[in-house]
Amino acid sequence: MPSPDEITCRDLVETVTEYLEGTLPAADRVRFDAHLAECPPCREYVAQMRHTVAALGRLPRDTISEDAKRGLLDAFRNWKKRPPAG
Amino acid sequence: MAEQRGRYDSAAVEPPGGDAEILGQLRAGDEAGFLSLVERHGPAMLRLASVHLSRAVAEEAVQDTWVAVLQGLNRFEQRSSLKTWIFSILMNRVRTQAQREGRTRPFSSFDTGAAGEEPALPDERFFPADHPEWPHHWAAPPKDWGASPEDRLLSEEVRAEIHRAIDGLPAGQREVITLSDVEGWTADEVSGLLGITAVNQRVLLHRARSKVRHALERYFEEVD
Fold first, then answer.
1. Cβ(B143)–Cβ(B156) under 8 Å?
2. Contacts with A36 from chain B: Cβ below 8 Å
3. Per-residue model confidence (pLDDT) at position B114
4. Is B204 in the A-facing interface, judged by CB distances under 8 Å?
5. How confident is the model at residue B213 (pLDDT cuts 50, 70, 90)?
6. Averaged pLDDT, B36-58
7. What distance in Å separates the CA atoms of residue A53 and residue A48, rounded to the nearest whole number?
8. Which chain B residues are Cβ-neighbours of A76 within 8 angstroms?
9. Which residues pair with B138 in a beta bridge?
10. pLDDT value at position A76?
11. Buried-state track A1-23, b at ≥16 Cβ within 10 A, e below 16
């Protein structure tokens, strides 16, 4: 039976972003870590969230279409010809 | 490395000289400098505009933004970063255009209710509150993602799944996860651009990430 100051798995799942972003108050962080130490499924959950965030940060970059690039280069050349707008 | 970015390597795409160097290039009429700026921010601008506009209209909004950036360049006073300034011009255009089109998808500033309203996982994943031994502990714990989830997450199929998951998010969550996690913007930059509080930024990011993880969990369960 969990003691009253322990957080539940459900609490952990709802505070994982604050934990990973480093915005969880220190006391809550201690409780979070204490729960993790005892709970393999929650360790797996946090690991999956970390993997998810890492994968999001490594999505390949879209490229700009050649058409769009050409249009923008034209706009840039036109802009160069003009005196600075007031 | 050049194609990677996000919070772990956003520095890889920023020029060493920063805004001052880019501004110097633009004002000197350096075409390569302009194109590299377009390549650096264009894709994220299109993703952000596409949250609220159809693809064709979003492309137009991005093109118009670049023209407005050039026209406003001599008035830009570097009170904000060049990036923030460009994206705020974009967001203004997107808002105007979305209103014109009668699109109703709410912007992040209207999509920030309390976190508890929308749990990260369905209730049945946890034992109920009155469970005699394990209230609110896992009833259906997450299954592991195999020996090397890092590698699996780099596959084309999984990346397509991640894009599908992002595209299925409500507008505000899509904006925040795109800027924060995909583009690697700081929390302050994101909340500043979207006009939301730091707390709301984290709430939206939390919901968005939780759903993307959940989508990946379902995907791995299907293929395993």
1. no
2. none
3. 45
4. no
5. very high
6. 93
7. 9
8. 29, 31, 34, 70
9. B126
10. 94
11. eeeeeebbbbbbbbbbbbbbbee
